Inverse folding.
């Protein structure tokens, strides 16, 4: 293993509740009923906003059409996120792990279904530029399908300049893990914030499951 790719939401920050709260606020206004637990698993986590709102309205939306609803949702999400100090912070051990990766010159990237507005917020809030070059943060720019399609991981792997089988991918959602496997990652690590996520990960073929980044060291690259 020579490089590593991270999902963002639920992987670098434990923000699933902030996302779900924003969806619970917005979706009933648009269609009368909120998302079910199964809908979150199959149609929300890891998907792009265009895919999600196309599902909500049961018709294919353009990126521009979806952006109007998407930005309303993301504004709500950021409001919920900053109110939760635990959610609006990097997962335990992550800064030290990033520092170790940087010191060892291990190529790393982020591949997230988040839109540009959220990525700009993350870069400023969490000072991501000290670890990641701008082109090493791959996000939903309207040119790629969401997970479980491996497109976003394929792009991140290309940016790292490594064969897929030499890359580790860290994910939290079943859709993201399916995408990582489809991309041909050499190892897929699952991270969990609560028992519900752990139960989902227990059903998937993972190299390792972790609760925080104190549980990872450079041994994973051997």
């Amino acid at each position: 293993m020579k490089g590593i790719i991270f999902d963002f939401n639920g992987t670098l920050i434990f923000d699933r509740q902030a996302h779900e709260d924003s969806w619970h606020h917005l979706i009933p206004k648009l269609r009368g009923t909120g998302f079910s637990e199964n809908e979150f698993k199959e149609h929300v986590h890891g998907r792009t906003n265009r895919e999600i709102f196309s599902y909500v309205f049961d018709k294919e939306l353009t990126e521009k059409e979806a952006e109007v609803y998407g930005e309303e949702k993301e504004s709500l999400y950021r409001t919920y996120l900053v109110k939760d100090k635990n959610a609006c912070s990097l997962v335990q051990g992550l800064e030290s792990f990033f520092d170790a990766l940087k010191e060892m010159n291990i190529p790393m990237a982020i591949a997230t279904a988040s839109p540009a507005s959220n990525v700009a917020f993350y870069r400023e809030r969490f000072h991501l530029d000290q670890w990641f070059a701008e082109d090493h943060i791959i996000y939903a720019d309207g040119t790629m399908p969401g997970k479980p399609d491996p497109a976003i991981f394929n792009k991140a792997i290309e940016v790292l300049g490594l064969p897929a089988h030499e890359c580790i991918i860290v994910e939290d959602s079943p859709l993201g893990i399916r995408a990582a496997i489809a991309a041909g990652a050499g190892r897929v690590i699952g991270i969990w914030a609560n028992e519900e996520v752990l139960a989902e990960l227990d059903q998937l073929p993972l190299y390792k499951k972790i609760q925080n980044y104190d549980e990872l060291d450079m041994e994973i690259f051997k």
The chain is about 45% helix and 10% strand. The CA atoms of residues 7 and 111 lie 5 Å apart.
